[in-house]
Specification:
Blueprint (H helix, E strand, L loop, with lengths): L8 H9 L9 H11 L4 E8 L3 E8 L2 E8 L17 H17 L7 E5 L2 E5 L2 E2 L2 E2 L11 H17 L2 E2 L8 E4 L2 E4 L6 E2 L7 H23 L8 H12 L6
Antiparallel strand pairs: 1-2, 2-3, 3-5, 4-5, 6-7, 8-11, 9-10
Amino acid sequence: MPNDPYLDASVAWRIKSGNLEMREAGYRSTEEAILSSGLATEVVGLISAGKEADVYLTGYKGAPLAVKVYRLYRTSHRGGGPIKLDSTGWLAAREFEMARQAWKGGVKVPPPARRVENMFSMRYLGDESGPAPRLKDVEPEEPRVMMAMVLEGVRCLARAGVVHADLSAYNILVHGSQPWFIDFSEAIRVDRTGDAPWRRLHEASEALRSGLNSLNGYFGRYGLEIDVEDTVSDIVRSLDRFGVL
């Protein structure tokens, strides 16, 4: 994994010198890291905790922000082994760039702000009562309209050059009655080379198929069904600029 170009000099020095504690940071240590990095001027509390990363509600000079902090010694939820300490900066950088690419393309994602080491800040979606709920916890008044907005979001992501590789009702927030996409840790860039185009499009097809099938589990509650194969075919065909499929 190409960690070095994305690894902050301070982290590289601490790893090389051995001046890094070889245990997962606790809440207080993480709070100190967020504040000392300049990502926020206050840490309000933990929003969500996962196997790969935690998200904190913070404030920057009075403006609410969310800060995602990758666990230093996390184990992938996909069943992989522990991630190397110096890889977390690369993982945070990768997700930050994926989210920024989607945001620049007009997709409803929490706009990313800054990244430092294994952390990055973004717009907080929520209000005084709490963070925006996940789609899986929402019963929309018009499920068919929500499904159409979600599918348009998936298409908009593809036009921006990004395919969400972990798409589900868990990774979509509902804010202002609109679906917002989150968690781009596994996303695939499909707007540039660097790998064989057919391989990238094949990966995108599989990711889209898996994600849309997962969303069918949610929309099926309302008697709705996404035409997965037609949707995947339409999106991938729009991406196949070189006619390789």
